[in-house]
Amino acid sequence: MSPLNLKRSRILQMALMGSSSSLDGQGEEKTAQELFLTRAVKIVVVVSLYWFVSITMVFLNHYLLDSPSLNLDAPLFVTFYQCVVTVLLCKGLGLLASFFPASSMDFPSLRFDLKVLRSILPLSLVFIGMITFNNLCLKFIGVAFYTVGRCLSTIFNVIISFLLLKQTTSLYALLSCGIILGGFWLGIDQEGEEGTLSWISIVFGVLASLFVSLNAIYTKKFLPVVDGSVWRLTFYNNLNACILFLPLMLLLGELKTVYQFDKLGTLHFWGMMTLGGIFGFAIGYVTGLQIKFTSPLSHNISGTAKACAQTVLAVLYYEEVKSLLWWASNLMVLSGSFSYTWVKSLEMKKVQEEHNPKMNEKSDPTV
């Protein structure tokens, strides 16, 4: 081959290679965009699902606990039945996962173990307090004020962490707690001004907030008992609750109230009760799903935004008229919660950044 032809072939080869690499680059960019869009759609779907389940569950529980059309004064029975539904769903999903191991269903097999049931009893008592006071608060308080009524979980987290774990809190985090506390008191004042304040609901809201904080701490402590499985812990917690609610309902006369309930044999009543139990179970799943597809920080921000939307929906649905200061109390609670979450996330990031260089120094053989 002549030098001129050789030169031309090389030029042609280089042009073809350049064209091919350009096409490869465009293909990679297109694939990256498709992956980004797919992930964005998944996140939107998961966050929307979390909002739908959480908001629907609150409205549904309020209907079951305080609806004039239903008129059932048995909050412990409603809570007990939701625990029964959760136990049955956990067991059913566990059986399905064992029958179809090749499927994508990621659910642990569940078997009754009396030793485990006894071991997590302290956590179950806290869990019962949390769901009972939460429902009692919702029974005696409007859905619109529900966010403010039980907003003190963050405050109790700080107090309990200091008392039990000796963990101190930064000034900025304490200022965020101060904003939440200010919003709480302003909300109580405004509810009193409007004549809709129920002090018993405030007491139940404070107790619910306390037990939410205790439940978070005790859950971390007792997770190793069930090999770190949140679903196994859910199963045994609700099973313990089913057993312990029976004497409580008997002592408080709720079994007699339920027996005399005029809608006990109606399909509508049991359908709504079962639906409430399903949503109560689903909230645990969609919460984990949202954290998985976003992050714990994004989950907390989403929860704060959801609470805001829930308050607005409640005011519109129940056709309530609220003062400017009432809205200001909600805004203070939500902004304080958001601020606290943001501050704690920055502090954790700073700790990780300070910890990583030390780990690198230890692993570097030249140091």
TrEMBL record:
It is found in: Membrane. Its main location: membrane. InterPro entries: Sugar_P_trans_dom, TPT_transporter. Residues 42-340 form the Sugar phosphate transporter domain. One of its GO terms (cellular component) is membrane. The chain crosses the membrane at residues 43-64, 76-100, 112-131, 143-164, 171-188, 200-218, 230-252, 267-288. Pfam families: TPT (PF03151). It is a multi-pass membrane protein. Keywords: Membrane, Transmembrane, Transmembrane helix. This is GDP-fucose transporter 1 isoform X1. The keyword Nucleus does not apply. It comes from the Eukaryota.
